[in-house]
Specification:
This protein is about 45% helix and about 20% strand. With about 550 residues, the chain is an alpha/beta fold. It folds into three domains: about 25-175, Beta-Lactamase (2-Layer Sandwich); about 255-415, 2-Layer Sandwich (Heat Shock Protein 90); about 435-559, Rossmann fold (3-Layer(aba) Sandwich), CATH 3.40.50. Strands 3-2-1-6-5-4 form a six-stranded antiparallel β-sheet, with helices on both faces. It has a five-stranded mixed β-sheet with strand order 8-10-11-13-12, covered by helices on one side. Strand 2 and strand 3 form a beta hairpin. Helix 1 packs antiparallel against helix 2 and helix 5 packs antiparallel against helix 6 (about 220-250). It is elongated.
Length: about 550
């Protein structure tokens, strides 16, 4: 008899130990799962299953406080309970647990005055435990139910309390995440609107400066002043673009338009664009670019942005009479694969403090930490460079020997395995400059008039419409070759204008160009979907606008 009793005690202890280990592992799994959730619905799904597993109950319910009501959000049970229903806080046991900030343990529901018997008669419930989610300020409650009389054990109550504590943390995390997400969405909308509002006044100023440059030239005191104004306008436009880009990249809204291009040619073009700035600062540029092409699949616009940012950085932190080295090299991979191109931009400028290097590519990190902020910038350029390079499958590194010893940035990009040479026999035919009929649809009078003046200087015939409806009417009468249209128009927006004109066979061969203050990736995609051939942001870069118009000319000449 003694041996039988000892065996029974041993088996019970063993069973209890096994139960604890099993419960511990299940709780650990729940904690891990709840740490990753981003919505209340995910929390409910995990908890309603776990609560029943941990207590061996015949049913569980998940309740959330909704003002002065208890909302029975979800359940997992052998029979229906109250899923989807709401009860006054003071008329149900979940409300009692929340108001009293303690668990309700009821062995017989028919013997407890806190239970609304009529609500329970239609259910299987005979016993229950209701535990509040967060004791200090309850968010809700989790209830466990049994179909036979059951006195909940301390272990079952303890497991439910641990589960509710974990659930409370998860709900708080989700609420914080949703709050931050909403704040970021509002911030993105604000930045987009700010960019639009900044571009609108900058656009006519840029157009006017371009016209002055064309008519007065680039020499003399006035010419130099015009160049200075143009430089500052480009700087302001770059700051606006960086604000939008860093937000778009953060939320994965940047898409690449990859083309097979010669990196060496892109570098040469970009250096040519920066020639005036290099000359103005009296810097010496030493370039080492390969004679044979280095082919890679990149987005040319984004590559220009990457290299331009690095070059601008070198210019910004160089001293007058300093030096800048630009190198592009091809490094073959092993066994004919894994070849890369390495683009290096090095300067003899102020260098980089070693303490800043680890965080240099983080948003809003400033290498210039002087009080006068003489070199300006938002601290976004290098963050954008890193993100764009990584989107291309490459990487970027920064190094410096110390203060006043210059800095170097190296961009490594995968290249095409097939390396081919230039076709030297290819004929380059420049399209004859024709006078085109161009319609400008723009509600900002200053922008419209100045843009018209510049286009007329190039010999084009230009008409203006100051709203979308008038723009469509004018287009049908004027039958322009090129339509340059704003997006944020009164009465009929630019998207609707493009959609309307795209239906008309008169404009099958016309080129529709969106010229707008809205420059986000989503805005570009919407413009192309609406029927625009390309999307340009204000203030317009007339070199880019000319390229788009020349594309139309090429199509006309070849047809």
């Amino acid at each position: 008899m003694k041996n039988i009793l000892q065996t029974s005690i041993y088996q019970e202890q063993n069973s209890h130990q096994s139960y604890n280990i099993s419960s511990y592992n299940r709780l650990l799994s729940v904690v891990k799962d709840l740490a990753c959730v981003r919505t209340i619905e995910e929390i409910i799904e995990i908890v309603r299953l776990a609560a029943r597993d941990l207590t061996n109950a015949d049913g569980v319910t998940f309740v959330l406080r909704d003002g002065e009501c208890c909302h029975y959000v979800d359940e997992n049970a052998i029979g229906p309970l109250w899923k989807g229903m709401r009860f006054p806080l003071r008329s149900c046991i979940s409300g009692w647990a929340m108001l009293n900030k303690q668990a309700a343990v009821i062995e017989d529901i028919y013997q407890d005055a806190r239970i609304p018997i009529e609500a329970y008669k239609v259910t299987f419930v005979k016993s229950l435990v209701m535990v509040p989610i967060r004791v200090s300020e309850p968010l809700g409650a989790i209830g466990a139910y049994w179909s036979t009389r059951h006195r909940a054990t301390p272990e079952e109550i303890g497991l439910l309390e641990i589960l509710t504590d974990t659930t409370a943390v998860a709900i708080s995390n989700v609420q914080l995440f949703q709050k931050l997400t909403n704040q970021n969405a509002l911030k993105d909308k604000f930045i987009a609107m700010l960019a639009h509002e900044l571009r609108n006044p900058v656009a006519p100023i840029s157009n006017g400066v371009q016209l002055l440059k064309l008519k007065l030239g680039e020499t003399g005191a006035v010419g130099e002043t015009v160049l200075m104004m143009q430089h500052q306008i480009k700087h302001l436009s770059k700051l606006i673009d960086e604000l939008l880009d860093v937000s778009s990249i953060t939320y994965g809204k940047i898409s690449l338009n990859l083309e097979k291009v010669n990196l060496g040619e892109l570098v040469r073009q970009s250096l040519n664009d920066h020639a005036q700035a290099i000359k103005r600062l009296n810097l010496t540029l030493i370039q080492d670019l390969p004679n044979t092409p280095v082919w890679a699949y990149v987005d040319p616009t984004r590559f220009f942005q990457v290299f331009g940012n690095l070059l601008d950085n070198a210019l910004k932190f160089s001293k007058p009479d300093g030096m800048i080295w630009v190198d592009l090299s091809f490094i073959p991979g092993e066994n004919g694969s894994g070849s890369v191109a390495v683009l290096s931009v090095r300067d003899s400028g102020i260098g980089i403090d070693p303490t800043i290097l680890p965080e240099l590519f983080e948003p809003f990190t400033q290498a210039d930490r002087s009080l006068d902020r003489s070199r300006g910038g938002l601290g976004l350029g290098l963050s954008i460079v890193k993100s764009l390079v990584e989107l291309h499958g490459g990487n970027v590194q920064a190094s410096s020997r110390g203060i006043n010893l210059g800095a170097e940035f190296k961009v490594t990009l995968p290249v095409c395995e097939e390396i081919t040479g230039f076709d030297n026999d290819q004929e380059i035919i420049e399209a004859a400059k024709k006078s085109l009929k161009i319609l400008v649809i723009e509600d900002n009078e200053d922008s419209a008039i100045t843009l018209k003046a510049v286009l007329e200087y190039f010999g084009h015939e230009v008409s203006i419409a100051n709203n979308g409806i008038l723009g469509v009417e004018t287009a049908r009468k004027f039958e322009p070759h090129v339509i340059i249209c704003d997006i944020g128009l009164p009465e009929m927006d630019g998207f609707a204008v493009a959609q309307e004109l795209s239906k008309d066979s008169k404009f099958t061969d016309s080129i529709l160009i969106a010229l707008t203050g809205y420059g986000g990736q989503e805005d570009k995609e919407l413009a192309l979907q609406a029927g625009f051939k390309c999307h340009l942001t204000k203030p317009v870069d007339f070199d880019v606008l000319t390229v788009e118009i020349d594309r139309y000319l090429d199509r006309v000449l070849s047809s």
